[in-house]
Amino acid sequence: MASTACFIIVSRNDIPIYEAEVGSAAKREDAAQLHQFILHAALDIVQDLAWTTSAMFLKAIDRFNDLVVSVYVTAGHTRFMLLHDSRNDDGIKSFFQEVHELYIKILLNPLYLPGSRVTSSHFDTKVRALARKYL
Amino acid sequence: MIGVGKIKQYSNILDKPLSKGKQEVSLSAFAFLFSELVQYNQTQVDNIAELERRLEDAGYAVGARVLELLCHRDKGNRRETRLLGILSFVHSTVWKVLFGKVADSLEKGTEHEDEYMISEKELLVNKFISIPKDMGTFNCGAFVAGIVRGVLDGAGFPAVVTAHFVPMEGQQRPRTTILIKFAEEVLRREARLG
Known about the structure:
The complex is a heterodimer of chains A (about 140) and B (about 190). Chain A is of the alpha+beta class. Chain A has one domain (about 5-135): Beta-Lactamase, CATH 3.30.450.70. Chain A contains 4 helices and 5 strands. In chain A, strands 2-1-5-4-3 form a 5-stranded antiparallel sheet. The longest helix of chain A has 20 residues, at about 90-110. The relative contact order of chain A is 0.20. Chain B is of the alpha+beta class. Chain B is built from 5 helices and 4 strands; from the N terminus they run αααββαββα. In chain B, helix 2 (about 50-75) packs across helix 4. The longest helix of chain B is centred in the first third of the chain and has 26 residues, at about 50-75. The interface of A and B includes residues 55, 103, 106 and 120 of A.
């Protein structure tokens, strides 16, 4: 089943530190930019919503046509945002939790500057594998 | 090689599980490492304020990581959104993991609304340090102040955090107080959240 999905990690200072198109559908030329635009527009909503609850998984917070934005906020206010068209809430929550563990391992590296881009190719491989598994 | 057992070798840190880790670290090893950190920074700076700032920055990096790790490991993925919540998180959970005990006391400042104090009879990092007279009010607890600032900043509660010596009658060594002064926006948001 083909599905579109765009995953980005945005740091505390609203700078994207990781981006990946993880859907299984064929990628259109302009789709990537549109996805990023939608995700950035949703950042405002996330900011308000993050202070109303102490949970990390914020479920679906915004819609665009038939695409839904789901967000997961970590303790350090790093946001994992997923733009998708499926309705698989549990799968998405598990995906976020696994990526959260990977992110913590990256963060624990003393030579990694928090808020800078994640460049590890191994991290990229693992995120894509997790996306195939859960989404 | 000493100590090589049948440990599974992971090719990359991302594959290793995020374990609870060793609960205890050698105090003398840490004291040596910390003293080297202070001595190294002493050679790089001309004045005390700069030295304090460098120690604080070193602590800030630790604080940012400790916040994420502890919230994931010990708090079951729940974030702190309220002021008192994050303060008690620092006072108990962070202190317990870093120093093996909860902080001695957490007080609210009487003169200003935005000031809070965490006090400790003897900070672990200061245990083997004595300050020469000509360094005045310098406190190596600036490292711990940096850790607290890293935790608060990461959680969205920007604050100015400093470490001070408070002389106590009847005790030879003064008590150390970490003074936390929150930024305006934190108080406004707290008031808004009710």
